[in-house]
Amino acid sequence: MNKFLAFAVFASVFFSAGSAFACSFLGKSVYEYFSTHSKVFVGTVQEEPNAEGVHKMHIDEAFKGIDKGTEFIDISFDESMCGFERQKKGARFLVYMNDGEKISQTGGTHLLWRLADTSTHLEMNLNDVILIRRMLW
How many CB atoms lie within 10 A of CB 58? Predict the structure, then answer.
């Protein structure tokens, strides 16, 4: 009976954990994300989304695929289960994107700065920005 109970507990934890990690993915290297996306930049959300969910983002630092002198870009966040929630003005991202696609976490884009939470992902993601700068230097 004890073996059955132990197995039942183990099985319930093991099988229920799968749904908790449904959005987990094996991250690629900065180089892989950089080389598989047509646009790479650091941007800050300038406006709340419009009715279609499109945000205006300021190009803070362009690394790839952004014409010189471009200040703003319209972007959409993937708001599905594995995406991002709607972002507030001031949120800052390291963006990896291809033309016509929504920005998602599984595509490599990640938050650098959130107004309500200024340190959660700050250090690790800034290291990615530094690495990109060094790759291009």
Answer: 15
Question: What spatial distance separates the first Cα and last Cα of the chain, rounded to whole Å?
Answer: 65
pLDDT tier at 118 (50, 70, 90 boundaries)? Answer: low
Mean pLDDT of 97-126: 71
d(CA 107, CA 39): 12
0.90 cut: is pTM over it? no
Q: What is the DSSP letter of 43?
A: E
- C-alpha to C-alpha distance for 97 and 41, rounded to whole angstroms: 9
- The dihedral sign for the CA sequence 116, 119, 121, 125: positive
| SS3 track for 109-128 | CEEEEECCECCCCHHHHHHH
